[in-house]
Amino acid sequence: MAAQRQSGGRESRASSAEDGARGVRAAQAYSGLQRERLADLQRARIVGAMLEVCSERGAGSVSVANVVERSGVSRRTFYELFTDREDCSLAAFEQALAYAAQRVIPAYEAQKAWRERIRAGLIALLSFLDEEPTVGRVLLVESLAGGPRTLARRGEVIGKLTSVIEQGACEGRAASTPPPLTGEGVVGAVLAVLQGRLANDAPASFTALANPLMSMIVLPYLGAGAARRELERPVPAVTGPRDGATTLLSDPFKDAGMRLTYRTVRVLTAIAEHPDASNRLIGEAAGIKDQGQVSKLLGRLQRIGMVCNTGLGPGQGAPNAWSLTSSGQQVVNSIRTHTATSHPAGQPGARTGGRR
After folding, report:
1. Max mean pLDDT range (19-33, 42-56, 178-192, 228-242)
2. 314 lies in a domain?
3. Model pTM?
C-alpha cells in the first residue's frame, strides 16, 4: 500500500512537472510570436519611412540616418532588420510593388479577353497612381536609382509585363505580324509616360490617360480601327488622393506619440482578443507577470486615447474592464495588416542576416 502511495505521488509530481513544462513552452511560444510581430511592425515602419524619404529626396540621396529619423526607430533596430541601405531600398520597392499588385492583378484576372484584361489592369494601376502618388513614384521612378538588386528586380517585373502584352499577338488583326521587341517597346512607352508625370509632379489625372494609353497598346496588335475605338470608349471615373483616409504609409503608432514596444503590442492585442478584460486577465493573456507594469502601460495607453476603462475600477468595488477605442482599434488593425503584408509574396522574412 505504501509503495502504491509512493508510486502515485511520483506519477502526480511527474504529471505536474509535465504540465508545468507545457505551460512554459506555451508561454515561450507566445512570447516568440509577439516578438516576431513587433519585428514585423518595426520593419513596416522602416519600409514606410524609406518609401516616404525616397519620394521626397530621391532614392540616390537617401541615407540610413534619414530613414531612422523618419521611422522613429533606432539605428540598431534598422541593422537588425536590414543589411544596409540598399537592402531596405529593395524592400521598399517590393512593398510598393505589392501594394500596386493588390489592385492590378484582381482587376486583370476578372476579365477573359486579352484586350479587356489589359484595360482593366491599366485602369486599376492608373487609379492607384492617382490615390497613392508617393508609392507610385518609388515604384516607377526612384527604383531606377535603387541599386543593382532593385534594378534587377525591376527588370524581372518589366519582363513579365512584356510577356502579358505580347499575348496580344494571338488575337491580332493587324495587317502583319508585329516585329520583335514590339511588346518591350509598348511597355517602355507606357512606363515613360507615367514616369515623366510622376517625376514632374504633373497635376493631371492618371486615370484620364486610360484611353490614349490603351490605344497605343492595342495598335500594333489589333490595328488602327481598334486603336481608334479605344479613344472613343467612355472615360473612366477620375480618382484622386483619398481625403481623410488612412494612406498606405500611415503610422498610427508614431502619430499617437507613443513608442512602439514589445509590451505595447502584447497588451493591445490582448485587449483586442479579450474585450472588457481586467488588468489580471490582460497580464495573463499578454504574458506579463508584473501587474504593476500592466497597470502603468494601461494608464499610458488610456492617456493617449488607445484604450478606455468601462468598469467601475477597484476603488468602486469592481475590477477594471478595458476595451479599445477607435484609435486603439486602428492600431490593432495596423498590427494585423503590417504583419500580414510586411513580407510580400516570394520575399524572404523580416530578418535578412544583417548586422546585429
Report:
1. 178-192
2. yes
3. 0.68
